[in-house]
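Researcher: Here's a chain I'd like modeled. Treat it as a single chain, no partners, no ligands.
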Amino acid sequence: MKSSEVRKKYLSFFASRGHVIIPSSPLVPENDPTTLFTSSGMQPLIPYLLGALHPAGKRLVNSQKSFRAQDIYEVGDNRHTTFFEMLGNWSLGDYFKKEQLPWIFEFLTKDLKLDPKKLYVTVFTGEAGSGSARTGQSLIPKDIESIQLWKEIFSRVGIDAKIGDHASSADARIYTYNARKNWWSRSGEPDKMPAGEPGGPDSEVFYDFGPSTSSGQVWHDSKFGEKCHPNCDCGRFMEIANSVFMQYQKQADGSLKELAQKNVDFGGGLERLVSVTNNSPDVFTSDLFTGAIATLEQMTHKHYAADETDTRSMRILADHIRGAVMMMADGVIPSNKAQGYILRRLIRRSLLYGRRLGITEDWKYIGELVAPFAKIYEDSYPDVLIKTQQIKLLLEEEGMRFGKTLEKGLSEIEKIETLDGHKAFYLYESFGFPWEMTEEIARDRGQNIKRTQFEEEFMKHKDASRTAAAGMFKGGLADHGEETTKLHTATHLLHEALRRVLGEHIAQKGSNITAERLRFDFSHPTKVSSEEIQKIEAMVNEKISENLPVFSTTMKKEEALASGARAFFSERYGITVTVYSVGEKGREFSREICGGPHVAFTGLLGRFTIVKEESLGAGIRRVYATVTKNESAAHPGKISSKA
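Model: Modeled as a single isolated chain. Structure tokens:
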């Protein structure tokens, strides 16, 4: 089956059983500073799993865009990806195990037409010892109910489901594991869960590609253990579905307390489900990747399955560029911080593995991989197709920017006999090599480098930079004089005009203001045309000629954000903030959290002119602008310096 068919079948299956289809949340979580990315379907639903009422009701279903940065180094095998879609259905205190498990089996065997004989399941064993789960002094018991339900489900299709564990013979159908394998929370097993975190035992479904390969060889490799079982790492089994019975919450004393409502939180990876419908253990052979793989084959004149090393490189490239495309479609741009840093790592690691495929010159080639993904997601995530050109340009620019230094850096590495943390920082500072890339190259060379040394050098550099920047005013202002204050106010008008002319994706990335000019950095993938510059200038000058009032309001940061005030670098602000507004109350042209100072009326600014526009690389543009004295100011006004 194709991915669109599997996704549609899943959503329709649960919609017909009273579930409301909800949209995917963005990859970058909203109002959740604890994590960089949405990594599971349940993540945006935490408040509702804990008891809050969801506006769509108690039965929900969706396909959630997800990204797990911790899996970057796992990519390259036949099943791991960084970006993935998680098909999920939820019962928020409504149905529980006796409805959920039969439904999942029905979907897998009837809608996806999987052979029941190929399906194996696991349940929580409740055993004591490492990784066990307790409510106070009581051990959470073995999930007898799920075991009994599975026995009944399998019996209906003529299968006698025997019970075993990982040390049992291979004829078991239902396997039991402790909390290390059959407990789910965002943090892992119970002893790793922070206070307040919900979690619970789960029941997983595995697809069996064995017991022998197509050539007749026994699938299991004894280096992974004497006997094969669903959680064996030999590759014979693939996990395709996980029903979490989320009914506990971690307490401050380390115990688990039952929630007021029993929830079902199901997750099934779309990529894996598509693969098993085609009886393929390789997710990269599904239609989600075949377009990108074919493009790579054309570029490199190599075949995907011909060589194990090339296969791994193509998988990494396809996965990383797909992840990058989906991030950028959600507004992430390459940078050295937070989500932007992960994006940059993906792109730079892609270039490294492109080089291993023989692509060493035209570093813009990664942009050609955007179209296949835009095509595959045109119906489910149309933003990718809409932003194709913008994403392509960003990738090409980042590729050219780093590709030129990649060869130099790799050449420099060849001169270094023994890599250590100090040399790793030199490569980072001189060639932009992320720590992780140097570590990976050292690992390939059989060397182990210490991150502590790298971090020591990094802190020295950071301290030196901080000292050099001492004396600068907050907000990038050289001083609080009258001309600087005018230009500071003009940046607010400029920022809003940029958003209205170029698009809502515009976000401030930095500024520097002196008495002579303002410098403003913002996110945008392409050069600003002369026509666009004229429109921006005209809009700013229109607001200056209207002599709009500039006023400030002090409020809590959360209140300011809820009111629609723009906040960039919001982590710099405290609990209470000042919001500066330009325009009459209720009809403001601009509202931003800011520390001031500003003029009292825009008519004091004078004629606004953009004198230069340039690229800073990686989707960041910079403009320089001035204001010239306007003798016919409509209002005498005063300087407003409230901070």
